[in-house]
Amino acid sequence: MAALRNQLRLYLVTDPELCAQIGVVETVRRAVAGGVTMVQLRDKHATTAQRTDLAVALKAALQGTGVPLLINDDVVAAAAADADGAHIGQGDISTAQARAILGPDKILGLSCETPQTVRDVDPLIVDYLGLGPVFGTATKADHAQPTGFDGLARLIALSSLPNVAIGGLKSDHINGVMSSGADGMAVVSAICGQSDPQAAARAFDTFKPEGRP
Ligand code: TZP
Ligand code: MG
């Protein structure tokens, strides 16, 4: 679990449109060189076959880095590509179904936006929580009401699972996120939308949750 907390420290969620200039694979390559510790392939418009192909390409790009690859929403693509896991939301298949498809050894993340959804999580099924959105963001049009740092801290306090904060986060939010008790920050536009993804990732360098190397 300590390993997973460390892997959640700087979590890149990809967006094909924001990565369009150099592509998702090259964005990931550069972002990992800049310090990204976890990658999620998120493409709302792709088919399972397309996600599987891209996941295989990303896996090859990540080989030897120790950075896990998770697939958003599509647990079948995650299993087909033998990715490191999947991340699902409240509107996707149940966590029990996702776990059954992934098997016991893969990482399963779940988005939670409210205290009740955090309380409802089965910690024997889910490995980590994605919490937020902390702030409003144009990246996810239909996002829930932002929590702010106080709301984030309240969600974190309800679970002992590893967690990652998401939503409108930039490198100058590091202190606010850290003092809320998060294990890490998940970002899309702070890295994908930038001309230099490596430098953009490096800007988060000082995010080291207390007591962790
Ligand atoms: N889930 C909640 S907010 C969000 C997702 C996928 C998008 C976050 O994007 P950004 O650009 O880091 O604000
Ligand atoms: Mg989803």
Automatic annotation (TrEMBL):
Keyword Transferase: yes
Pathway(s) of this molecule: Cofactor biosynthesis; thiamine diphosphate biosynthesis; thiamine phosphate from 4-amino-2-methyl-5-diphosphomethylpyrimidine and 4-methyl-5-(2-phosphoethyl)-thiazole: step 1/1
The enzyme's E.C. designation: 2.5.1.3
Required cofactor names: Mg(2+)
Annotated signal peptide: none
Binding site for 2-[(2R,5Z)-2-carboxy-4-methylthiazol-5(2H)-ylidene]ethyl phosphate: T137, A138, T139, G168, V188, S189
Residues in Thiamine phosphate synthase/TenI domain copies: 10-191
GO terms assigned for molecular function: magnesium ion binding; thiamine-phosphate diphosphorylase activity
One cellular-component annotation, GO: cytoplasm
Protein name (Swiss-Prot/TrEMBL): Thiamine-phosphate synthase
Origin species: Yoonia algicola
Chain's gene name: thiE
